[in-house]
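Person: At home tonight, work slowly through the protein below, taking as long as you need, and write a paragraph about the fold.
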Amino acid sequence: KKKINIPSQLAVLGFDNTSFCDYTIPPLSSFAEDVSGITKALLKLTKDKLTEENTDRQYLFQPIFTPREST
């Protein structure tokens, strides 16, 4: 085993910001998807499709960063 100090020698990030991130040593910084924004966009697209409105659009969602001690 190498003695690597996190975060001073190596920053570590997670993805999906699960509750597990709070229980690692050190607690894991993580990114998560904007589930609320994605859900709202999906509902709007579904409504527009059902009412035959234009659904030809793109969405860009910013990930949500939760900093903890691993960065």
Q: What stands out?
A: The CA atoms of residues 55 and 67 lie 36 Å apart.
